[in-house]
Amino acid sequence: MSVVVRDPANRVFLFTKGADSVIYERLAPAGREYLEATRAHLHRYGEAGLRTLALAYRELSEEECGAWLERFEAARRSLSAEREALVDAAAEEIEQGLTLVGATAVEDKLQQGVPEAIDRLAQAGIKIWVLTGDKLETAINIGFACSLLRDDMKQIVVSLDSPDIRKLEDAGDKEKLSAFCRDRVKRLLQDGAALIDRGGAGGPGAGEDSNGEADGNGVGEEGDGEGEGEGDSARVFALVIDGKSLAFALEPELRAPLLALAMQCASVICCRVSPKQKALVTRLVKDGTGRTTLGIGDGANDVGMIHEADIGVGISGVEGQQAVMASDFAIAQFKYLERLVLVHGHWSYKRIANAVTYFFYKNVAFGLTIFYYNAYAVFSGQIVYNSWACSLYNVFFTSLPVIGYGVLEQDLSDKQLLMFPALYQQGPKNVFFRWTTIALWLVYAVYQSILLFWTCLAAVLPQASLPSGKLFEMNGLSATLMTAVVVAVNIQIALQTEHWTWITHLFIWGSIAVWYLFLGVYSYFGPDWSTDYYYIFSEVLAPSALYWLTGLLLLPVMAVLPYFVFRGVESQIAPPDQQVVQEIVRLNQDEEAAKAAVAPPMAPVGFTAAVEAVSKRLRKVERKRRRRGEK
Predict the structure, then answer these.
(1) Deepest in the core among 36, 127, 430, 509, taking most CB within 10 A?
(2) Quick one: average pLDDT of 270-292?
(3) DSSP letters of 205-252?
(4) Domain count, the chain
């Protein structure tokens, strides 16, 4: 960030603040007097976990300032698609030949609940990447504070902060520097991949010197090597890469190696990245893996990343509302992300998946009965249902229950979902909306349509079921079949519902009541309006015991019986995870037993994983002591 000012002596100055790596590249040869001292200060600040910025300035002549302002204003007023690039080029032009002033450091504590939220998200199987503008040392400290890094991890540090590169920077040969850095980053990525292939065995590709600066190879491995054992088949790795390295790693030639290396690491931390690099990394992950990405940030620097991610979350806070305005969801603190994702994400996925499959099911079951009657009537064009009843099927008789399900359904409470974050994996694994699931629902709908139509036809038409001894006519068959369909599909969603409220009861049973209200009221409208349903309820349906037995009881029960039996058998043989949790919580059994029953292998990062790693190390040390004692 830069600003041009005029002092009381009428001199014009450009003042600039930014990441140290960015400022260093823009220094004039005569402006590097405090460079080494500033580097040492920034390194100590970073190790202390402070957020740092470098400060620089240059004095501008009136002619230079005036000419540049004209070019800058022309770029700002440009209406072309390259407007942003023109503005950046103008800013880049003036931000050269700077004189280093010094650096600043501020403490920016983690918000309350951040480590716990990251732990739960990791236990849910979500891979977390940190994209930050902080210095490398600060970013690593943040990683340890969030439990994304721990002592027994092997850190693959990809950095271009080395003596060789500094010499090239001081020489000012940008072409040679660029080629050297590109080759260096390529080799670092290859070394990191080779290290993982070896499982962390052997010496590091490069260590770190006493100042914490990467040596000629630039790949640092940290960790004491005591984290293995008790079932660990491989070491856990973390990738830390700085913005200068990332600029080359995001080139087309190196994108694939970068992504392949990052996907093999438990944690990925990108430090000193620009807003554009945040967006490019997000796009790389989204396009390269095909996974759903979520970007979360609280400042203007995060807007590009939030836009690029599939789901953007903005945190409202002291850094303005730009991130919030650009996001899909807004939260007040980072810790609320776990509830947004693990609770509302799980609920929303299951609601939408089941609501969509139910829509297909209920309309196929209803529509096929019309087709069967056309075949029965030799395709004469006669429709089995009254036109108004047919039109209102999806408007009043079956719409409210599925709307209520899509809004109110909760297979587990919010506390249970936070207690068992592994249940979130039902969404990424698409448990409830696979093609096989949709196909089974369609088969179920076909079964119900066949059962309802042909059984109703066989039970109603041949019988002298009216008090007068007359047979049911076409209108009686139509009303009985419609009753069976409406009752069956509403009972079906009642069987699927696991969270009952008074609204749920009202929508399900009220929809059946609305059908009977329609029958009673519509049949009294007169023959011009009610046509074949004229007085049908009071004179045909209500007096007939066969109608009540067949349309309201027998056919709906037979229709939903396979689903009822399937759920019962499933609960005994292979109960779904949510049922296991429900039973254990209801029976007040051990929570750890429930977690073991539903959870995948423990996530490699997070507070829980860190505690488990320490426990393993202590157990390993204890075993060594026992063996030495036995000898």
Answers:
(1) 127
(2) 93
(3) SB-B-TTS-B-SS-EE----S----TT--S--EEEEEEHHHHHHHTSH
(4) 3
